[in-house]
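Working notes for the structural subgroup meeting. M.R. asked for a predicted model of this chain before we commit to crystallization trials. I am recording the input and output together here so anyone reviewing the notebook later can reproduce the run.

Input as submitted:
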Amino acid sequence: MADMKAFRDEIDRWAAGGPNGPGDSGGTARGLAAALGLRTAVLLEGPSDVAAVEALAARHGRDLAAEGVCVVSMGGAMNVARYAGLLGPPGLGLRLTGLCDEGERGFYARGLERAGAPSGGFFVCAADLEDELVRALGPERAEEVVRAEGDLRAWQTFLNQPAQHGRSRQRQLRRFLGTKKGRKIRYGRLLVEALDIERVPSPLDDLLRSL
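Returned structure, recorded in token form:
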């Protein structure tokens, strides 16, 4: 039986193997997409963004995989043209959507154009998704999440670093989330779960509503 993890793994192998993919990965991915009934691919920069999107979907009681939606981590914004080419036209023919950072909007537009994919379905974060989430929660509430997760000592040590002196609390929190491997992924989910459902950042909310 096909599952979404198998499809994601196959897409990653295909993306890593050059223009035509290694061996029969393209055919395998196409078969898995058909078996899963996929209609939409959500292209995201990394796994922390995937965690946030899936957490918000869960809060709304939605099963994206059952709806024919695959949420994909591209392993960096630089890979957007390749993933768009494989998943959208002229690849698997899925509808494409996703998130991008304001500073990378032009890069995304050029990459999607090279892939022959439309760019209108992408929603723009002011800095990045973590920044949007911290702003929506407010620094005090975000710090409560850090304390509840058992990271208070690490947070206090981070704040004592000279490089953090004079920075706003929001900038400090955003930077803290990226200082340890796996932390951004964990907090991508935790920050969404802590949000008032009426205060979800508009790029994330608009993305889910579009699916």
